[in-house]
Design a protein that fits this description.
Elements: E1 3-6, H1 15-24, E2 29-33, H2 36-41, H3 43-52, E3 57-61, H4 73-87, E4 91-94, H5 102-120, E5 125-129, H6 146-155, E6 160-163, H7 164-169, H8 174-179, E7 185-190, H9 206-209, H10 222-231, E8 237-240, H11 252-271, H12 283-286
Parallel strand pairs: 1-2, 1-8, 2-3, 4-5, 5-6, 6-7, 7-8
Helix pairs in contact: 3-4, 4-5
C-alpha cells in the first residue's frame, strides 16, 4: 500500500512546497490537487518536478475552488483526463454532483463522464469521492451517504474514493460507512475527525478544525478501519489529506515531522492489518 500526500493541504502555496514536504516525510508520491500554480506551470513541468523529487503523481484531484474553464463537469472532466495522461497518473478523483439543482447536475456529470472516457480511454480510472456534511441541510444530499454513493458509482461503472473524515461527518461509524461501499473502493483519503472547541465549531471552519485532522489526533478508530481494509485485501493507495492548521504548516520542520509521523502510523497499521501499536501522537512537539 503506497502512502501519498495531498497537495491540497498546502492549497494556495506553490506546488513545489508540497512535493518537498512529501519527499522529506517519506511519502511514496502525491495526490495533486490542481490550483493556479500548477495550472500555470502545466502538466509536463509538474510531472518532471515530481520525478526530480522522487514523488510521482499517483492521483489527480480538481481544484478546491471553481476556476475559469473548470467549473462544470463537461468543462473539467475532459481536461482532467488530458492532465492525467500527461502526468502519467492512473487515477482521477471527482466529487458527486452538487445538491442544488441535482437533476441538472447529474445530467452534466454524465456528460462530463462520457467526455472523460473518450479522452482517457482505458488508461485512467475516474473515481467518485463521498461528500461531507457541513450544514444540517447537507444531510438531505444523497451523496453524503455511502450507500447512495455506491449506487451512483455502480450505475456508472466507477470505483469509489472513500474519505474517512467525510464519512465521519455524517455521524456514521467509520467501519459501518466503509462497509456500505466495500468492494468498490479503489483509493482512500485518510484523515481524522474531532469535535473542536465550541468557539471554533462552525461550518466555515470545519475543514480546518473538525475535518481533516492528523491521523490519531481525533475520534476515529483508524486501527479497526485498517483491519477491515486488510480483511478485504485492499491494495490501493492511501492519501494523507489533512488541513494546513492540523499540519502546523507555519512551522515547516514541525509539519515535516507531523506528516512523517502520520505516514509511519499508516504503515504501522497496514503492516499487520491494523494490529500494530502506532507511534504515540506528537502532542508535545505540536503544542
Amino acid at each position: 500500500m503506497s502512502v501519498l500526500f495531498s497537495t491540497g493541504s498546502l492549497y494556495g502555496l506553490p506546488y513545489h512546497l508540497a512535493f518537498r514536504l512529501a519527499s522529506a516525510a517519506g511519502c511514496d508520491g502525491v495526490e495533486l490537487v490542481l490550483d493556479p500554480w500548477s495550472l500555470m506551470a502545466g502538466p509536463n513541468a509538474v510531472r518532471q518536478y515530481g520525478h526530480r523529487m522522487a514523488c510521482p503523481i499517483r492521483a489527480l484531484h480538481p481544484s478546491l475552488f471553481g476556476l475559469p474553464g473548470w467549473r462544470t463537469a463537461p468543462e473539467a472532466f475532459p481536461r482532467l483526463a488530458e492532465w492525467a495522461l500527461a502526468l502519467e497518473c492512473p487515477l482521477v478523483v471527482v466529487h458527486p454532483p452538487r445538491f442544488s439543482g441535482l437533476a441538472e447536475n447529474i445530467r452534466l456529470f454524465d456528460q462530463g463522464l462520457a467526455s472523460f472516457r473518450r479522452v482517457a480511454g482505458e488508461e485512467v480510472v475516474i473515481g467518485l469521492e463521498n461528500s461531507a456534511v457541513f450544514f444540517e441541510r447537507d444531510r438531505q444530499h444523497p451523496y453524503v451517504w455511502p450507500e447512495r454513493v455506491a449506487a451512483f458509482a455502480l450505475e456508472r461503472g466507477m470505483p469509489v474514493v472513500f474519505d474517512t473524515t467525510h464519512a465521519a461527518s455524517t455521524g456514521l461509524g467509520l467501519v459501518e460507512a466503509y462497509d456500505q461501499v466495500a468492494g468498490l473502493v479503489r483509493h482512500v483519503h485518510l484523515s481524522d475527525f474531532r469535535q473542536p472547541h465550541a468557539w471554533l465549531d462552525r461550518p466555515s471552519l470545519d475543514t480546518y478544525f473538525k475535518h481533516h485532522q492528523l491521523p490519531g489526533e481525533g475520534e476515529l478508530d483508524l486501527a479497526s478501519f485498517f483491519r477491515r481494509l486488510e480483511e478485504d485485501g485492499y491494495s490501493g493507495a492511501v492519501t494523507v489529506e489533512v488541513s494546513p492548521v492540523a499540519l502546523r504548516i507555519w512551522r515547516p520542520s514541525l509539519a515535516t515531522q507531523l506528516l512523517r509521523h502520520s505516514v509511519d502510523m499508516v504503515r504501522g497499521w497496514r503492516a499487520v492489518g491494523g494490529q500494530a501499536t502506532p507511534v504515540l501522537p506528537l502532542r508535545d512537539a505540536a503544542s
